[in-house]
Structures are given as structure tokens and as C-alpha cells.
Amino acid sequence: MKRILLSLALGAATLAAPAQAQEPIRIGVIQTLSGPAAVLGQQARDGLQLAVRQLGGKMGGRDVQVIVVDDELKPDVAVQRVQALIDRDRVDFVVGPIFSNILQAIHAPVVNSPRAFLISANAGPSSYAGRGCHENFFVTSYQNDQVHEVLGAYAQRRGMQKVFLLTPNYQAGRDAMAGFKRHFRGQIVDEVYTPLGHLDFSAELARIGASGADALFTFMPGGMGVNLVRQYGQAGLTQRVPFLSAFTVDESTLPAQQDAALGMLAGMTWAPNMDNPQNRKFVADYEAAFGSVPGSYAMQAYDAAMLINSAVVATGGNLTDRAAVRTALRKADFTSLRGRFRFANNHYPIQDFYTVRAAKRPDGKFQTEIVERIFENYTDVYAAQCPMRW
């Protein structure tokens, strides 16, 4: 089992925790850290660790321990490891994961535990945004549908008539298709669901080429997205059928996709070139620490750490009063890297959404860059179904 115990101090990523009269705050991080999707979890892990390091390894005057485990993209493994975080490590917060099927597996064990709060720094399935919302579950990313809605709205505004849809067959993939179709009024010429982890798209590309579509919309995170973009160009489709995506062309995949992805449009709440002081510092510090351009996974996990810090500070470091901690989390009294951020009644963010474009920087590194804002102060459509009122 891959389990990493970290006590983060300013300027040091992994040091043994010093003995303290007061127990440290324990944050369990569960991410996908092995296999083709590992780069996503690594970005989330690194973003959170950077935030804790910038806080001097303390929150509310208490030391912080970060315990990292690998879910291996296996729901049964994730349940075992999150249970160990709760029972053995006695964590106060669980942060993660990347994939919605993993979140669905660990949700109940964490939110029903007597101690821990669950903060998703990426996965935001519809199942917990509406009637299934829970007072001990918070999201610092988005509701899954929303980023895909950006591209549906974009396609509709641009007068596209026929779109081909392609996604993995799991909860986030189904949310992606629902999100795109929410604002697109044209024809869906085909809707294809592949196995999770699918890497050979030759059959799907043949169908796209023959479909007569005005554009492709796809959600293919991690290694799936790397292969799809490369094969899309090799099949000669890049100029014929515009490529619209979410979580397919981003800072986690661009180092491998490189020029094959240039100019491709995506949707997101943020990009590395977002112009505010906290984000400029974050990007510079992340690149200095890890040697790569941060993506949304890192940004959202960084914000998750700052959200936790805001709650710890607001409660004077006393986490025994869960109602007080919950109230402090709901206030979200921190400066988000993306600027506007507050929670809706379902504990999913209210925020702005943009189209972003894959670009090559003067230093040769690749990143996404903001093109235009599509939604402003946008609340997900499921929040009205959530019975929580506060």
C-alpha cells in the first residue's frame, strides 16, 4: 500500500512531525497516483502540499500532517484506504479524489464518520449536488456538468448545428454529456461511451470522420485525452472537425500532447494566466517547486487547503465542535486563486466559467489561456433540489 505521511513546514516538503503537546491537524489526501491517470492525482497532491508549505506547515497555530494514499483508480481499494485514514490515522479532513466513481465509493464512509469532513478537490458528481447533498461534504472544483455546459453554450452561440459526443462510460462521463446538452439545441449526430481507460480511438475516429459533424465534444481525462488528441491529428481531423473538450486538453495532458493540441478549446473556471496577484504567485511558486505548469487539479487542491485553513483559523484551532467547523467551511473565508468563489446551499461553488485555449508560452511550455467568460456567478442546476438551507 502506498501511504505517505508528511509534516509540511516552510521550505521542506517531507519532514518528521515534531512532538507537540497539541495533536496536529491531520489531512488525508486520497488521489490516483498510479497508472495512466497518475499525473492528475500528482497535481492535486502537489497543489495541496504547496498551500500547506506556504502556510508554514501550520493552521490556526497547530501543526499540520498530510497523509497521502493512492486509490489506484479502484473503488474497493479506495474504500479500504479511506477507512484506514479515518480509523487508524484519525484524520480531520479527507481531500480528494480525481474520479467520480472513487468519490461515490468513499463518500458514505467519510461523511458518516464521527470526525472527518470530505472535501472534493475535483470530482463533483450530480448525485451529491441535489437531493443527495450532505452537510459534511464540500466541493472546491465545480459540479461535473458545469464545465461541459460551457462548451454546449459555446457551440450554440457559434451556430454549430451537428455535434459528435465522446466520453468514458462512468458517472462523470454521463454528467459531461448531460452538461453539454443542457445549452446545445442542435443535433447530436452520435453519442459514444468508451470503457474507462480506453486508449485506442481508431474506431471512434472513423465514426467521427464519417458523421458530418460540425464539431466533436469530448471528455477524456488523463492518458485517454493524450492518446485521443494525438490520434485525432494523425487521422487528419483537427482541421476538419473542431475539437471541443473538457479535462482533455489541460496542463496535465499538454506536456505530452504539445503541438497536437494547440488552439483546441476547452472549458474551465480558471487558467494559469488568470490575472490576479494570488494566482500569479501560485503559478510561479508551483513551477519553481515542481518544474511544471499547474493545472486545475493543482489549483482546486490548493484552494481546498486554504478553505480548511480558513475554517481552522475561524474556530481557533478547535475542531471538536463540528457544527462550528461546518459553519466556517460554509463561509469560505479565503482568497481563491480563481477570484470569485462562494458556496451554494449544496456546498458546491458559485463561480465564473470560461472557454480556454491551448497555447505555447514564449519559454516553450504549454498551458491553457482564458478566451472569454461564458457564465458569471453560476450555480449548478441541482442546488435547488438540495434540502440544506443555511
Structure in words:
The protein is an alpha/beta fold. It is built from eleven helices and 16 strands. The strands form two sheets. Strands 1, 2, 3, 4, 5, 6, 7 and 8 form an eight-stranded mixed sheet that branches. Helix 7 links the parallel strand 11 and strand 12. The protein is globular. The two termini are 40 Å apart.
What distance lies between the first and last C-alpha atoms, to the nearest angstrom? 40 Å
- What is the H-and-E element order? EEEHEEHEHEEHEHEHEHEHEHHHEEE
Quaternary structure type: single chain
The total beta strand count reads 16
Please give the largest β-sheet: 8 strands, mixed
Q: Low-confidence spans: pLDDT under 50, at least 5 residues? A: 7-20
Beta fraction of the residues?
15-25%
Helix content: 25-40%
Shape: globular
Chain-averaged pLDDT: 93
Radius of gyration: 20 Å
Computed structural class: alpha/beta
- How many H/I helices? 11
Notable traits:
8-stranded mixed sheet; alpha/beta; 16 strands; single chain; 35% helix
How do you describe this structure in short?
Helices cover 35% and strands 24% of the residues. It has 390 residues and is α/β, with parallel strands linked by helices.
Topology (SSEs and partners):
Blueprint: E1 3-9, E2 12-15, E3 25-31, H1 38-54, E4 58-59, E5 62-70, H2 75-87, E6 93-95, H3 100-111, E7 117-120, E8 137-139, H4 144-157, E9 162-168, H5 171-183, E10 187-194, H6 202-211, E11 215-218, H7 223-234, E12 243-245, H8 254-257, E13 265-268, H9 277-290, H10 296-314, H11 322-331, E14 342-343, E15 349-360, E16 366-378
Parallel strand pairs: 3-5, 3-6, 6-7, 7-8, 9-10, 9-11, 11-12, 12-13
Antiparallel strand pairs: 1-2, 1-5, 4-5, 13-15, 14-15, 15-16
